[in-house]
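P.,

For your records, the input lines for the assembly:
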Amino acid sequence: MAEYTQMETLGGLAPHSAPATPPATPSLRSASPNPPAKVRVEQSSPLPTRVREYFGNITDVVKTFWEGLSVTLSYMIRRPITVQYPDRTEKRVADMLPSRYRGLLEVDMAVCTGCMACERACPIAVIKMATDKDPTNPKQRVITQFDIDESKCMFCGLCVEPCPTGAIQHTREFESTMKSIDSLIYRWVPDPENPVPFYRPVKGQDAPRAPVGEILKKRLAGTSWIARPNIFPGPKGKD
Amino acid sequence: MKITLGLDSTSLTRRYPRLAILATLFMAFALPLGLYLAALAIFPFNTPERIDAMAREWFGYDLAGSPYRYLVYTGFLLLVAFIAVNYAAVFGGASTWVERRVAGRMQSRIGPNRTGAAGFLAWVADAVKMVLKEDTIPASADNLLFRAAPYFSMVGLLLPFVVLPLGQGTVVTDMNVGVFYLAATSAFVVVGILVSGWASNSKWALFGGIRGAAQVLSYEIPAGIALMVPVLMAGTLSMQGIVRAQGGAPWEWFVFQNPAAFIAFFISVTSSLAEGNRTPFDLPEAESELVAGYHAEYSGFRLAIFLMVEWANMWIMAGLAVTMFLGGWQIPFVTAEMYQHALGSGLVPSPLWFGLQLASMLVFIIKTWALVFTFIWLRWTLPRVRVDQMMSLCWKYLVPGAFLCFIVTLLWQLLVPPMGMKITGVVFSLFALGLLVKFLIDTRRNIDRVKGDRVDLSNW
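Structure tokens returned:
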């Protein structure tokens, strides 16, 4: 270290040294960003500074080796902090996440009012909904399509906020790898021939929303990652 | 061991977990043990006289008068070379695993732990991957030199195996200029570095090659002079002779016999670190500055050779230091007469002799691995030095220090009686033991300093 400063003051080969402009005043010198390294000055010592520096460097090396090696060895016999994902954790990682984590979206179709507020709120058109009249009961409207493209979703949470019944929620699930990207379009109404009726909220009562995450967990458990995507029967076959 | 069976992505080892453990045990213990046993079976008997005698005794064939005798000798030498090459490859591979696991723990992570038991087979997987990769040669590279360079390095790695004694009798040949030969041939690695740096026709590789040359050539001097200290103490250049001049107990090792040898040991180890391009002296391949230095343009098998040389060189470095300073294969309280007595005069020595040989090899292996661990430990402790620091360390500190040790050893050998050497040996080994204890206490204190931390070897 003392060596380093010496080279710098000689205008030598120190790599990031600025051009050796002498400071204007002595007071600036002490405030320069690279103050000269402290040389163990023992005024009473009869040895010249160079000699003291030379042996000082050797003792420095020995001391720093000693210190550094004992630090690294001490870390070697401590427990690594790494959490071994995914198979060597005490619980599933999704269950260890904070409850307000914004993971994959989940819709409880039993309490969906079909208001389409979420579709309108989505800034990037991830959600695609369609509604229709129930042919058997003209007073009842039904949801024929509720698609969420998780591959596009940016997990902003804007769809969750306007939902009147809390039907659409972020879960803590995040492991959604699929062989085909089309499999990431989660169809909450799997079959348009079999639509889901609108939910009518009851005044003064909370919607009976299923616990967040339970429906999606079941869904993910039932899907193999190499499963064929559920191509929606429509004019273009997709979306 | 990731052998995929069809699309369902189940691997053999996941289906049969015991297979992974068996494969690991084989690669980690059976394979090296087999190589050691092969070395023990071949190395001590690999002289023309022995081979002639065996042919006469067992096959009734007069090999000495046969025109094919040199063919047979060459066959034996090829067998020896085969063992050495395989040993270097297996050691190089296994040490990469050790290095990665040690580095991991020193950085509070785990390191590779999935392929095989404890991740040991990671190096096999890496090697297979490397060999299967395309061997690209840059369009503007010097084709012939580019392809030849790894072999220069490999030769520099393998030639020292000839004189490095594995055990009392287990050495390929005991040259009377062993140390000189080892210093000369191990420097051959730098030819490969320089040639690959030049032939790659790339700035980074060229810088790496030139740095390598400057570094290795500078550090040859302190390394050579520091190695002269045990040579002076033993009075011979033969590796086996130097080991025989030491004893099994720590106070009989050269490193503790005189204060100059104690310093020379550190100078020698530092210089060999620099010659082996290990951190803190890995300037020729400094990742953050030179991408990968001299092997930046290499891929596939040739890169694998460079990496194998780099890691297997640790065995040479450590083995050299152990042989010269730390008593080599000497088992405590086993004298040369006991080996001689066990050897007998027959064609095949007694089982006792083989047992002694194995024990001496074990001693050597333990000491060498301890030193290899120290090299790895140093690598993950120290940052890389700058070029000017590297040069100033060599020329301002190590070279004068080595000369000083040389002269002090000369005077010591002349002036100090054998009794004095014994006293110094005991005093210095007690001093070293004290240092070790103090070091462990300091390490312990480092752990206690952080609240809640304790010695914990779990989370593998």
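Two observations worth noting. Chain A has two domains: 2-15+23-76, 96-221. Residues 1-32, 235-239 of chain A have pLDDT under 50 and may be disordered.

Regards
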